[in-house]
Protein backbone atom coordinates (compact mmCIF):
# COMPACT_ATOMS: atom_id res chain seq x y z
CA UNK A 1 0.00 0.00 0.00
CA UNK A 2 1.23 3.52 -0.77
CA UNK A 3 2.65 5.22 2.36
CA UNK A 4 0.23 7.79 3.74
CA UNK A 5 -2.87 5.95 2.45
CA UNK A 6 -4.62 3.63 4.90
CA UNK A 7 -6.68 0.90 3.21
CA UNK A 8 -9.38 0.78 5.88
CA UNK A 9 -9.71 4.56 6.00
CA UNK A 10 -9.89 4.65 2.21
CA UNK A 11 -12.72 2.09 2.09
CA UNK A 12 -14.66 3.93 4.81
CA UNK A 13 -14.19 7.21 2.96
CA UNK A 14 -15.41 5.59 -0.26
CA UNK A 15 -18.60 4.33 1.38
CA UNK A 16 -19.28 7.69 3.04
CA UNK A 17 -18.72 9.65 -0.19
CA UNK A 18 -20.84 7.22 -2.18
CA UNK A 19 -23.82 7.53 0.19
CA UNK A 20 -23.61 11.24 1.03
CA UNK A 21 -22.72 12.60 -2.42
CA UNK A 22 -24.61 10.10 -4.54
CA UNK A 23 -21.42 9.16 -6.41
CA UNK A 24 -21.15 5.53 -7.52
CA UNK A 25 -18.24 3.43 -6.24
CA UNK A 26 -17.13 2.88 -9.83
CA UNK A 27 -16.58 6.62 -10.21
CA UNK A 28 -14.69 6.74 -6.91
CA UNK A 29 -12.46 3.80 -7.88
CA UNK A 30 -11.74 5.45 -11.23
CA UNK A 31 -10.78 8.65 -9.39
CA UNK A 32 -8.39 6.73 -7.10
CA UNK A 33 -6.79 4.99 -10.08
CA UNK A 34 -6.33 8.26 -11.96
CA UNK A 35 -4.90 9.95 -8.87
CA UNK A 36 -2.30 7.23 -8.32
CA UNK A 37 -1.27 7.24 -11.98
CA UNK A 38 -0.64 10.99 -11.87
CA UNK A 39 1.31 10.66 -8.63
CA UNK A 40 3.41 7.86 -10.12
CA UNK A 41 4.32 9.84 -13.23
CA UNK A 42 5.18 12.93 -11.19
CA UNK A 43 7.57 11.20 -8.80
CA UNK A 44 8.92 8.25 -10.81
CA UNK A 45 10.29 10.17 -13.76
CA UNK A 46 8.80 7.55 -16.09
CA UNK A 47 7.58 8.52 -19.56
CA UNK A 48 4.04 9.89 -19.20
CA UNK A 49 2.98 7.98 -22.33
CA UNK A 50 3.64 4.69 -20.56
CA UNK A 51 0.62 2.44 -20.01
CA UNK A 52 -0.06 2.04 -16.29
CA UNK A 53 -2.74 -0.18 -14.77
CA UNK A 54 -3.99 0.25 -11.21
CA UNK A 55 -5.81 -2.69 -9.60
CA UNK A 56 -7.96 -1.70 -6.63
CA UNK A 57 -9.63 -4.33 -4.44
CA UNK A 58 -12.88 -2.81 -3.17
CA UNK A 59 -13.17 -5.53 -0.51
CA UNK A 60 -9.77 -5.11 1.15
CA UNK A 61 -8.59 -1.72 -0.09
CA UNK A 62 -5.37 -3.26 -1.47
CA UNK A 63 -3.84 -1.44 -4.44
CA UNK A 64 -1.39 -2.84 -7.00
CA UNK A 65 0.17 -1.03 -9.93
CA UNK A 66 1.63 -2.44 -13.15
CA UNK A 67 3.45 -1.05 -16.13
CA UNK A 68 2.23 -2.70 -19.35
CA UNK A 69 4.09 -3.37 -22.61
CA UNK A 70 3.04 -5.24 -25.72
CA UNK A 71 5.31 -8.16 -26.61
CA UNK A 72 6.35 -7.87 -30.28
CA UNK A 73 8.84 -9.53 -32.57
CA UNK A 74 10.66 -6.28 -33.40
CA UNK A 75 10.56 -3.26 -31.07
CA UNK A 76 9.50 -0.02 -32.76
CA UNK A 77 8.71 2.03 -29.62
CA UNK A 78 10.30 0.97 -26.34
CA UNK A 79 7.75 2.95 -24.32
CA UNK A 80 4.93 0.63 -25.36
CA UNK A 81 6.75 -2.44 -26.69
CA UNK A 82 9.19 -5.15 -25.68
CA UNK A 83 10.35 -8.45 -27.18
CA UNK A 84 10.22 -11.93 -25.58
CA UNK A 85 13.89 -11.86 -24.57
CA UNK A 86 13.70 -8.48 -22.83
CA UNK A 87 10.42 -9.43 -21.19
CA UNK A 88 11.99 -12.51 -19.63
CA UNK A 89 14.95 -10.48 -18.39
CA UNK A 90 12.66 -8.00 -16.66
CA UNK A 91 10.13 -10.42 -15.15
CA UNK A 92 11.73 -13.88 -15.23
CA UNK A 93 8.67 -15.18 -17.08
CA UNK A 94 8.30 -16.52 -20.60
CA UNK A 95 6.30 -14.40 -23.05
CA UNK A 96 5.39 -14.92 -26.68
CA UNK A 97 4.61 -12.35 -29.37
CA UNK A 98 1.11 -10.96 -28.84
CA UNK A 99 1.23 -11.18 -25.03
CA UNK A 100 1.10 -8.17 -22.70
CA UNK A 101 3.96 -7.96 -20.22
CA UNK A 102 3.04 -6.77 -16.72
CA UNK A 103 5.84 -5.19 -14.69
CA UNK A 104 4.85 -4.75 -11.01
CA UNK A 105 5.54 -1.25 -9.72
CA UNK A 106 7.17 -1.03 -6.29
CA UNK A 107 4.79 1.36 -4.56
CA UNK A 108 6.97 1.47 -1.44
CA UNK A 109 9.27 3.70 -3.45
CA UNK A 110 6.61 6.39 -3.41
CA UNK A 111 7.42 9.24 -1.10
CA UNK A 112 4.78 10.61 1.28
CA UNK A 113 4.54 13.60 -1.05
CA UNK A 114 3.32 11.22 -3.74
CA UNK A 115 0.52 10.07 -1.46
CA UNK A 116 -0.46 13.69 -0.85
CA UNK A 117 -0.42 14.30 -4.60
CA UNK A 118 -2.66 11.27 -5.08
CA UNK A 119 -5.10 12.55 -2.47
CA UNK A 120 -5.25 15.99 -4.11
CA UNK A 121 -5.96 14.52 -7.54
CA UNK A 122 -8.55 12.24 -5.94
CA UNK A 123 -10.34 15.22 -4.41
CA UNK A 124 -10.30 17.01 -7.75
CA UNK A 125 -11.79 13.98 -9.49
CA UNK A 126 -14.52 13.76 -6.86
CA UNK A 127 -15.38 17.44 -7.38
CA UNK A 128 -15.65 16.80 -11.10
CA UNK A 129 -17.88 13.78 -10.46
CA UNK A 130 -20.10 15.83 -8.14
CA UNK A 131 -20.43 18.54 -10.77
CA UNK A 132 -21.35 15.97 -13.39
CA UNK A 133 -24.08 14.58 -11.13
CA UNK A 134 -25.50 18.07 -10.56
CA UNK A 135 -25.33 18.79 -14.29
CA UNK A 136 -27.12 15.56 -15.19
CA UNK A 137 -29.79 16.17 -12.55
CA UNK A 138 -30.60 19.78 -13.42
CA UNK A 139 -29.71 20.18 -17.10
CA UNK A 140 -33.08 18.73 -18.12
CA UNK A 141 -34.77 21.29 -15.85
CA UNK A 142 -33.46 24.37 -17.66
CA UNK A 143 -36.41 26.75 -18.24
CA UNK A 144 -38.36 25.14 -15.40
CA UNK A 145 -39.30 26.55 -12.00
CA UNK A 146 -37.85 25.03 -8.83
CA UNK A 147 -38.42 25.85 -5.17
CA UNK A 148 -35.46 26.42 -2.89
CA UNK A 149 -34.61 28.07 0.42
CA UNK A 150 -32.69 31.34 0.65
CA UNK A 151 -29.41 30.34 2.29
CA UNK A 152 -27.23 33.45 2.15
CA UNK A 153 -27.77 37.01 0.94
CA UNK A 154 -24.77 39.00 -0.34
CA UNK A 155 -24.63 42.53 -1.84
CA UNK A 156 -24.27 41.13 -5.37
CA UNK A 157 -26.18 37.84 -5.16
CA UNK A 158 -27.81 35.27 -2.97
CA UNK A 159 -27.41 31.50 -2.68
CA UNK A 160 -30.50 29.31 -2.92
CA UNK A 161 -30.29 25.92 -1.19
CA UNK A 162 -31.74 23.08 -3.23
CA UNK A 163 -31.88 19.41 -2.28
CA UNK A 164 -28.21 18.60 -2.81
CA UNK A 165 -26.61 21.78 -4.11
CA UNK A 166 -26.89 25.56 -4.38
CA UNK A 167 -28.27 27.85 -7.06
CA UNK A 168 -26.85 31.30 -7.83
CA UNK A 169 -29.32 34.20 -7.99
CA UNK A 170 -27.63 37.48 -8.96
CA UNK A 171 -29.09 40.81 -7.85
CA UNK A 172 -29.72 41.68 -11.49
CA UNK A 173 -31.96 38.60 -11.71
CA UNK A 174 -33.96 39.59 -8.62
CA UNK A 175 -37.15 41.61 -8.78
CA UNK A 176 -36.69 45.30 -7.90
CA UNK A 177 -37.22 46.05 -4.21
CA UNK A 178 -38.10 42.46 -3.28
CA UNK A 179 -37.04 41.36 0.19
CA UNK A 180 -34.80 38.29 0.31
CA UNK A 181 -34.67 36.82 3.81
CA UNK A 182 -32.54 33.76 4.71
CA UNK A 183 -34.64 30.74 5.60
CA UNK A 184 -37.58 31.66 3.39
CA UNK A 185 -38.74 29.53 0.48
CA UNK A 186 -38.46 31.07 -2.98
CA UNK A 187 -39.50 30.11 -6.51
CA UNK A 188 -36.81 30.58 -9.14
CA UNK A 189 -36.45 29.89 -12.86
CA UNK A 190 -33.45 27.85 -14.05
CA UNK A 191 -31.64 29.73 -16.81
CA UNK A 192 -28.47 27.68 -17.09
CA UNK A 193 -26.45 24.84 -15.59
CA UNK A 194 -22.71 25.49 -15.90
CA UNK A 195 -20.60 22.36 -15.54
CA UNK A 196 -17.37 24.45 -15.38
CA UNK A 197 -18.47 26.92 -12.70
CA UNK A 198 -16.18 27.29 -9.69
CA UNK A 199 -19.07 27.87 -7.27
CA UNK A 200 -22.77 27.20 -7.69
CA UNK A 201 -23.43 25.58 -11.05
CA UNK A 202 -27.14 26.41 -11.33
CA UNK A 203 -27.94 29.95 -12.50
CA UNK A 204 -31.48 31.04 -11.66
CA UNK A 205 -33.63 34.10 -12.26
CA UNK A 206 -36.87 35.77 -11.21
CA UNK A 207 -36.74 38.41 -13.96
CA UNK A 208 -36.77 36.17 -17.04
CA UNK A 209 -39.92 36.24 -19.23
CA UNK A 210 -39.95 32.44 -18.96
CA UNK A 211 -40.52 32.75 -15.19
CA UNK A 212 -43.90 34.40 -15.78
CA UNK A 213 -44.72 31.83 -18.46
CA UNK A 214 -44.06 28.92 -16.10
CA UNK A 215 -46.04 30.57 -13.29
CA UNK A 216 -49.02 30.95 -15.63
CA UNK A 217 -48.73 27.28 -16.59
CA UNK A 218 -48.82 26.37 -12.90
CA UNK A 219 -51.71 28.64 -11.93
CA UNK A 220 -54.04 28.54 -14.96
CA UNK A 221 -55.59 25.16 -15.78
CA UNK A 222 -56.40 26.00 -19.40
CA UNK A 223 -52.70 26.64 -20.10
CA UNK A 224 -51.56 23.58 -18.14
CA UNK A 225 -54.04 21.37 -20.03
CA UNK A 226 -53.07 22.82 -23.43
CA UNK A 227 -56.46 24.43 -24.16
CA UNK A 228 -54.76 27.82 -24.20
CA UNK A 229 -51.22 28.30 -25.51
CA UNK A 230 -48.76 31.07 -24.68
CA UNK A 231 -47.45 32.22 -28.07
CA UNK A 232 -45.20 35.12 -27.03
CA UNK A 233 -44.13 37.03 -23.94
CA UNK A 234 -42.22 40.27 -23.28
CA UNK A 235 -41.25 41.66 -19.92
CA UNK A 236 -39.82 44.63 -18.06
CA UNK A 237 -39.23 42.83 -14.77
CA UNK A 238 -40.84 44.41 -11.74
CA UNK A 239 -42.93 46.79 -13.85
CA UNK A 240 -44.92 45.16 -16.61
CA UNK A 241 -45.31 42.03 -18.73
CA UNK A 242 -47.30 41.35 -21.89
CA UNK A 243 -48.40 37.81 -22.73
CA UNK A 244 -49.97 36.76 -26.05
CA UNK A 245 -52.26 33.72 -25.78
CA UNK A 246 -54.14 31.60 -28.32
CA UNK A 247 -56.63 28.74 -28.44
CA UNK A 248 -57.50 26.47 -31.34
CA UNK A 249 -60.99 26.16 -29.86
CA UNK A 250 -63.04 29.02 -31.34
CA UNK A 251 -65.40 28.80 -28.37
CA UNK A 252 -62.62 29.69 -25.91
CA UNK A 253 -61.64 33.28 -25.16
CA UNK A 254 -57.93 32.72 -24.44
CA UNK A 255 -57.21 36.02 -22.70
CA UNK A 256 -60.43 35.80 -20.67
CA UNK A 257 -59.56 32.26 -19.58
CA UNK A 258 -56.19 33.49 -18.29
CA UNK A 259 -57.50 36.60 -16.56
CA UNK A 260 -60.45 34.86 -14.88
CA UNK A 261 -63.48 36.37 -13.12
CA UNK A 262 -62.53 39.82 -11.79
CA UNK A 263 -58.90 39.03 -12.62
CA UNK A 264 -58.75 36.22 -10.05
CA UNK A 265 -56.59 33.84 -12.09
CA UNK A 266 -53.96 36.25 -13.30
CA UNK A 267 -53.85 37.79 -9.82
CA UNK A 268 -52.44 34.50 -8.49
CA UNK A 269 -49.47 35.02 -10.80
CA UNK A 270 -49.13 38.75 -10.09
CA UNK A 271 -48.95 38.08 -6.35
CA UNK A 272 -45.83 35.95 -6.91
CA UNK A 273 -43.90 38.62 -8.82
CA UNK A 274 -44.28 41.55 -6.46
CA UNK A 275 -47.45 43.02 -7.96
CA UNK A 276 -45.95 43.41 -11.44
CA UNK A 277 -48.63 44.29 -13.99
CA UNK A 278 -49.51 41.62 -16.57
CA UNK A 279 -51.37 42.44 -19.80
CA UNK A 280 -52.87 39.30 -21.35
CA UNK A 281 -53.72 39.80 -25.04
CA UNK A 282 -55.01 37.55 -27.81
CA UNK A 283 -52.54 36.27 -30.38
CA UNK A 284 -53.46 36.26 -34.07
CA UNK A 285 -51.66 35.10 -37.20
CA UNK A 286 -52.97 38.30 -38.77
CA UNK A 287 -50.40 41.00 -37.86
CA UNK A 288 -53.01 43.79 -37.90
CA UNK A 289 -55.04 42.10 -35.16
CA UNK A 290 -51.96 40.99 -33.19
CA UNK A 291 -50.43 44.48 -33.20
CA UNK A 292 -53.74 46.07 -32.22
CA UNK A 293 -54.19 43.67 -29.30
CA UNK A 294 -50.55 44.00 -28.24
CA UNK A 295 -51.04 47.75 -27.71
CA UNK A 296 -53.91 47.24 -25.27
CA UNK A 297 -55.25 48.79 -23.09
CA UNK A 298 -55.12 51.44 -25.84
CA UNK A 299 -57.85 51.23 -28.49
CA UNK A 300 -56.20 50.86 -31.91
CA UNK A 301 -58.55 51.67 -34.82
CA UNK A 302 -56.23 50.90 -37.73
CA UNK A 303 -52.83 49.59 -38.78
CA UNK A 304 -50.69 50.21 -41.87
CA UNK A 305 -48.19 47.42 -42.53
CA UNK A 306 -44.86 47.43 -44.31
CA UNK A 307 -44.32 43.68 -44.44
CA UNK A 308 -41.01 43.93 -46.30
CA UNK A 309 -39.35 45.86 -43.47
CA UNK A 310 -41.67 44.48 -40.76
CA UNK A 311 -42.63 47.98 -39.63
CA UNK A 312 -46.08 49.40 -39.10
CA UNK A 313 -48.06 52.49 -38.13
CA UNK A 314 -50.77 52.00 -35.51
CA UNK A 315 -53.59 54.57 -35.62
CA UNK A 316 -55.31 55.56 -32.37
CA UNK A 317 -57.83 58.22 -31.32
CA UNK A 318 -56.33 61.42 -29.91
CA UNK A 319 -57.28 60.53 -26.34
CA UNK A 320 -55.60 57.09 -26.65
CA UNK A 321 -52.19 58.28 -27.83
CA UNK A 322 -50.53 58.55 -24.40
CA UNK A 323 -52.05 55.24 -23.34
CA UNK A 324 -50.68 53.53 -26.46
CA UNK A 325 -47.18 54.86 -25.78
CA UNK A 326 -47.38 54.16 -22.05
CA UNK A 327 -45.34 55.44 -19.13
CA UNK A 328 -41.69 55.74 -20.21
CA UNK A 329 -42.81 54.10 -23.50
CA UNK A 330 -43.34 50.80 -21.68
CA UNK A 331 -46.53 49.87 -23.53
CA UNK A 332 -45.22 50.36 -27.06
CA UNK A 333 -41.79 48.87 -26.29
CA UNK A 334 -43.34 45.72 -24.85
CA UNK A 335 -45.67 45.49 -27.86
CA UNK A 336 -42.66 45.72 -30.19
CA UNK A 337 -40.91 42.85 -28.36
CA UNK A 338 -44.11 40.82 -28.23
CA UNK A 339 -44.99 41.07 -31.92
CA UNK A 340 -41.57 41.41 -33.51
CA UNK A 341 -42.82 44.46 -35.44
CA UNK A 342 -41.40 47.98 -35.18
CA UNK A 343 -44.41 50.11 -34.26
CA UNK A 344 -44.97 53.83 -34.84
CA UNK A 345 -48.00 55.38 -33.12
CA UNK A 346 -50.05 58.05 -34.91
CA UNK A 347 -53.36 59.73 -34.07
CA UNK A 348 -56.28 59.77 -36.50
CA UNK A 349 -55.58 63.44 -37.19
CA UNK A 350 -51.92 62.65 -37.95
CA UNK A 351 -52.95 59.85 -40.31
CA UNK A 352 -55.33 62.14 -42.18
CA UNK A 353 -52.77 64.93 -42.45
CA UNK A 354 -50.04 62.54 -43.66
CA UNK A 355 -52.48 60.74 -45.96
CA UNK A 356 -51.72 57.35 -44.37
CA UNK A 357 -53.78 54.56 -45.91
CA UNK A 358 -54.45 51.94 -43.23
CA UNK A 359 -56.60 48.88 -42.59
CA UNK A 360 -59.43 49.26 -40.10
CA UNK A 361 -59.02 46.82 -37.23
CA UNK A 362 -62.76 46.12 -37.02
CA UNK A 363 -62.96 45.23 -40.72
CA UNK A 364 -60.01 42.87 -40.44
CA UNK A 365 -61.50 41.31 -37.31
CA UNK A 366 -64.84 40.62 -39.05
CA UNK A 367 -63.05 39.02 -41.99
CA UNK A 368 -60.80 36.86 -39.79
CA UNK A 369 -63.72 35.75 -37.58
CA UNK A 370 -65.67 34.72 -40.67
CA UNK A 371 -62.72 32.75 -42.03
CA UNK A 372 -62.14 31.02 -38.71
CA UNK A 373 -65.77 30.03 -38.24
CA UNK A 374 -66.38 29.02 -41.87
CA UNK A 375 -66.99 25.27 -42.22
CA UNK A 376 -64.16 23.48 -43.98
CA UNK A 377 -66.25 21.84 -46.75
CA UNK A 378 -63.91 19.96 -49.06
CA UNK A 379 -64.65 20.07 -52.80
CA UNK A 380 -62.68 18.69 -55.72
CA UNK A 381 -61.47 20.86 -58.56
CA UNK A 382 -59.29 19.75 -61.46
CA UNK A 383 -55.67 20.87 -61.32
CA UNK A 384 -53.87 19.79 -64.49
CA UNK A 385 -54.16 15.98 -64.52
CA UNK A 386 -54.77 15.39 -60.80
CA UNK A 387 -57.60 16.09 -58.36
CA UNK A 388 -56.79 18.19 -55.28
CA UNK A 389 -59.07 18.95 -52.34
CA UNK A 390 -59.47 22.65 -51.51
CA UNK A 391 -61.54 24.07 -48.60
CA UNK A 392 -64.66 25.86 -49.85
CA UNK A 393 -63.78 28.90 -47.73
CA UNK A 394 -60.49 29.26 -49.62
CA UNK A 395 -62.29 29.05 -52.99
CA UNK A 396 -64.76 31.74 -51.95
CA UNK A 397 -61.93 34.02 -50.84
CA UNK A 398 -60.17 33.45 -54.18
CA UNK A 399 -63.33 34.35 -56.10
CA UNK A 400 -63.82 37.50 -53.98
CA UNK A 401 -60.24 38.54 -54.65
CA UNK A 402 -60.68 38.18 -58.39
CA UNK A 403 -63.89 40.22 -58.35
CA UNK A 404 -62.18 43.24 -56.72
From TrEMBL:
* GO molecular function list: DNA-binding transcription factor activity; RNA binding
Q: Which residues form a coiled coil?
A: none
CDD domains (UniProt xref): KH-II_NusA_rpt1 (cd02134), KH-II_NusA_rpt2 (cd22529)
Domain S1 motif intervals: 141-207
> One GO BP annotation here?
DNA-templated transcription termination
Q: Which domain of life is it from?
A: Bacteria
GO annotations of cellular component type: cytosol
Protein's UniProt name: Transcription termination/antitermination protein NusA
> What is the species listed in this Swiss-Prot or TrEMBL entry?
Candidatus Caccosoma faecigallinarum
What gene is this protein a product of? nusA
Amino acid sequence: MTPGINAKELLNAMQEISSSKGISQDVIVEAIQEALKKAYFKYSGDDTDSIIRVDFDTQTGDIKMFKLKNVVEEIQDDVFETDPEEAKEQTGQDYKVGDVMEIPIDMSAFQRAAAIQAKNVFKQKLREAEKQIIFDQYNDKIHDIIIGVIEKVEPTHCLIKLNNTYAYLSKSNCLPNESLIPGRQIKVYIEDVDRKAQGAQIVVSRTAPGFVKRLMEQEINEIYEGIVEIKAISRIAGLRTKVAVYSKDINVDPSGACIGPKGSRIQRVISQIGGERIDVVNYSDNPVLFIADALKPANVIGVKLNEGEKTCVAIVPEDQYSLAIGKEAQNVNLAVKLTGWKIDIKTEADAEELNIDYQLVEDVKIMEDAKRRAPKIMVKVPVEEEQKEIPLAVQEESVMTKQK
